[in-house]
Amino acid sequence: MQPVLFWKFEEILPFRLSGSGCKNFGLTEKEFTRLLGLLAEGDNRLFEQIFLVHFEESVNYLKRRDGASLEDAYDAVMTTLLKFRDLLLQGKIHYGNLRYLFTRMARQHYQKNQQRQAIFDQSGQISPDLIDETDQRFDEETHELLSRAFRSLGKECRELLRDFYHRRRSLKQLAKEAERSAPAVRKQKSRCIAALRDYFYRIS
Amino acid sequence: MTTINKFTDSNLTEEEQDAIIGSFVRQREDTKLKNRWAEKLAKEHNIRRKETSRNNPAKIRKLYFLLLSAAAVLLFLLVFLPGLMMADGKELLATNLSEITLSGSRGATATDGPVSDEALRIQFRDNFQAGDFTTATELGEQLIALPATTDNDRLNLGFAYLRASQFPEAEETFRTLLSTNSDFASEARYYLGISLLAAGDTKAGLDELRKITAADGSQLLESAKAYLDADWK
User: Fold this and answer.
1) B3 and A165: CB-CB below 8 Å?
2) Which domain covers residue B130, as residue numbers?
3) Is the ipTM of this complex over 0.85?
4) Taking the domains of chain A in order of start, what are their residue ranges?
5) Contact criterion met (CB below 8 Å) for B97 and B162
6) How far apart are CA B187 and CA A48, in angstroms?
7) In the beta sheet, which residues pair with residue B88?
8) pLDDT confidence of residue B58
9) Is residue B173 part of a domain?
10) Taking an 8 Å Cβ-Cβ cutoff, which residues of chain B contact chain A?
11) In the prediction, which pLDDT does A142 show?
12) What is the pLDDT of residues A43-56, one digit of tens each?
């Protein structure tokens, strides 16, 4: 029997054009919860299906509203997509008016890229930290060394670090899935990081 | 203090360590997502970062003519040159290894499998084509672990191993394909020979290539002959 593994996308599309569905890219609250679950499992397909459909609309909005060039608007919306996914995983975005939030974030990213701050004054409903850059930036050399060190790790370590840092899964969740104790997973993570740092140290 | 210095500092706290590694992993994975989305936007939604320019048709025709001329000369050289001189085996191998591209689907295809298989295949192909063979091997390994994997996936994983210079893994992959009476047995035999040659086992590699016959297809046979006729001293 074919295993039922995935959400049926056609149950969501076509998007609802009025009411709370419209404000939330066609998602009901239940579907939104499902989206969060899939993202946490590392499955981005539903997210892509919903948000890539609205990409052009957001680009056009920035072009129209802020006079952005295609390239600038594209970059701002792409950055927003990545940030939006990450914020969803961190539980910082709640069901309510996702479309408004997304559009405002895109505008803020555009403005930030343009080194202008004017729009922040108008966005009382949105916490400024939603677009704040908390991640460190690396120069090309460091990034290359880190990439080499990361690639030198075993498959399990790479997957664990991806799960923890990129999919924002807690050690407790990871331990539960692997049927191990949280301290054991923490120890494994420490060993992976030690191996990464050791290799980095040797090649730098 | 630079990130390099900071990261190698033995007094780094767990929080600082998490901040550096977390930032790196997120940026690395986000870049992959970004590339994937850019490709999807271009292919499925016709949205590109830059407007496609409308070039002068006359210029395009001239360009085509030049490209066709160059291709004709290249074809002539490829067909006749190997017969005129004995190639150096190691040079031939190095050139051919760098030109290995992915195989298209044959036999069992991905279309019947769950979408995740296809998504993984796309990621695998994207990374391979982007030259990130190490990541491609990781994805290929995940792909062949899935129930709906195909022999084509395994063949392509073998290619990724070859491009990533993981010759023992490539050898094992092609041996597995051979042992399963796959549709790709001919290719598996040929690339098993290549894997052995690349790993430095010239005798075993040439022995495998000697097993290629006309029944394996003229292209494989010609390629195998080129190796067998080459100078391996």
Assistant:
1) no
2) 87-229
3) no
4) 9-130, 140-203
5) yes
6) 36
7) B231
8) 64
9) yes
10) 2-4, 7-8, 17-30, 33-34, 37-38, 40-41, 44-45, 47, 49-51, 114-116, 119, 134-135, 138, 141, 147
11) 86
12) 888 899 888 888 99
Mean pLDDT over the full length of chain A:
80
B106 vs B163, residue with greater confidence = B163
Prediction pTM value: 0.53
Residues B116 and B178 in one domain: yes
In a domain, B49, yes or no: no
Residues B9 and B120 in one domain: no
Q: In chain B, how many domains are there?
A: 3
What is the CATH architecture of A140-203? Answer: Orthogonal Bundle (1.10)
Tens of pLDDT, residue by residue over B35-44, are: 989 998 998 8
Question: Looking up tokens 């191990």, which residue turns up?
Answer: A180
B155 and B193 co-located in one domain: yes
Greater confidence, B214 or B112? B214
Average pLDDT over residues B150-173: 90
